[in-house]
Design goal:
Number of strands: 30
Order of helices and strands: EEEEEEEEEEEEEEEEEEEEEEEEEEEEEE
Strand order of the largest sheet: 22-23-25-26-1-30-29-28
Helix content: under 10%
CATH architecture: 7 Propeller
CATH class: Mainly Beta
CATH topology: Methylamine Dehydrogenase, Chain H
Length: 357
């Protein structure tokens, strides 16, 4: 699929303002001398959602891992303490979800109020999980790790096809996984040799992928030399979006490609010189991007949060965003295109609402 990616010199620019919906800050961590960094957010329904992260002190040291929960669409948020720093979330429905932490995989059956550890792993070795049903799921991570479970996450076995793509396992990792339906799935990551980050010029690195058409019974693995690191992946029906983040020396900080899952084709659909894509949401017929404006890509400072949307993947329109919203990273989540949420690394939660007249 990604072998067909081509460098597209013409950028897709947001050219107008989207009327009808706007983004409002509905929660902000306002405790003096500490900060809250959200690392993931999930909204399996319009009413129930969860955002997880770490509270840090004034010196930037981790104090407490927490989850914020809502059962009423964001009117009330309740804080739950977590035992380990969260990395990512996956929810199958309102109640059942899994959380990857720096040292394990946890499960909840009550929308995040309580968590049970399922397994332990090496520090930061697992990035994400995805479950097709309550029993059958996959986990991806560093050193070409792809694991499969058939019992809800109690026991995991290695997927042998994960070793097939070119790349030394010592510096090759799978960072993204998504399924468009119960059968078609994609796993993506990057291989970055030692010293690549110090190169004064952006040079191609190896992008690695696994693809399945039968729910993970068989995976096909391949690799291709491409610029940038895979930083995001979303699938919906026959469409997909994948984001590549680039080094400071590249012409743009990031680029979004549209994946045509039926044909294997791909097209560059968004890149802007001063905007870094950090979050995406994709639904049948509409896509959203969460964008920041970094001053330096290797260590982005917080900047104005921007939200863009499209229905044709050609024209991206800009949505109105609460002026208080600033961040270096913004994540998106929601069950559909009408109920969308954002979480920032500055302790803010934003909700997409009808625009106020």
């Amino acid at each position: 699929m990604l072998q067909r990616l081509q460098v597209v010199l013409a950028a897709a620019f947001a050219v107008s303002i989207a009327w009808g919906q706007e983004w409002q800050v509905v929660y902000s961590h306002g405790v003096a001398r500490e900060s809250l960094v959200f690392t993931d957010v999930a909204f399996p329904s319009a009413e129930r959602g969860i955002a997880v992260g770490v509270i840090r002190d004034a010196q930037g040291r981790d104090k407490q891992a927490v989850a914020l929960l809502t059962r009423d669409g964001g009117t009330i948020w309740n804080q739950v303490l977590l035992e380990e720093s969260p990395v990512s979330l996956f929810f199958l429905d309102d109640a059942r979800g899994w959380m990857v932490t720096v040292q394990g995989i946890w499960k909840t059956e009550d929308s995040g109020l309580g968590w049970t550890r399922l397994s332990r792993h090496t520090q930061n070795s697992i990035e994400r999980v995805w479950f097709l049903d309550s029993m059958h799921g996959f986990a991806v991570g560093r050193e070409k790790t792809v694991l499969e479970t058939r019992d809800g996450g109690l026991r995991w076995t290695a997927v042998p096809e994960a070793a097939e793509p070119t790349g030394n396992p010592a510096y090759t990792g799978y960072t993204q996984i998504a399924f468009a339906d119960g059968q078609r799935g994609l796993i993506a990551g990057s291989s970055t040799p030692p010293g690549a980050a110090k190169n004064p010029r952006e040079v191609p690195t190896m992008t690695v992928q696994l693809q399945t058409l039968n729910g993970g019974v068989v995976w096909a693995g391949f690799a291709a030399p491409l610029f940038g690191q895979v930083s995001g992946l979303k699938l919906a029906r026959s469409d997909g979006l994948i984001v590549f983040a680039y080094a400071d020396t590249f012409e743009v900080p990031s680029e979004v490609y549209r994946l045509e899952l039926r044909t294997g084709g791909s097209t560059s659909v968004f890149k802007q010189k001063d905007r870094l894509v950090t979050g995406m949401a994709l639904f049948a017929g509409q896509a959203f991007l969460a964008v920041t404006e970094p001053k330096a890509r290797t260590n982005p400072a917080r900047g104005k949060v921007r939200m863009l949307t499209t229905t044709d993947f050609v024209k991206w329109v800009e949505m109105k965003v609460d002026k208080r919203a600033s961040a270096a990273k913004v994540l998106l989540a929601g069950p559909d295109a009408e109920h969308l949420w954002a979480a920032t690394d500055t302790g803010m939660l934003l909700k997409m609402v009808p625009e106020r007249k």
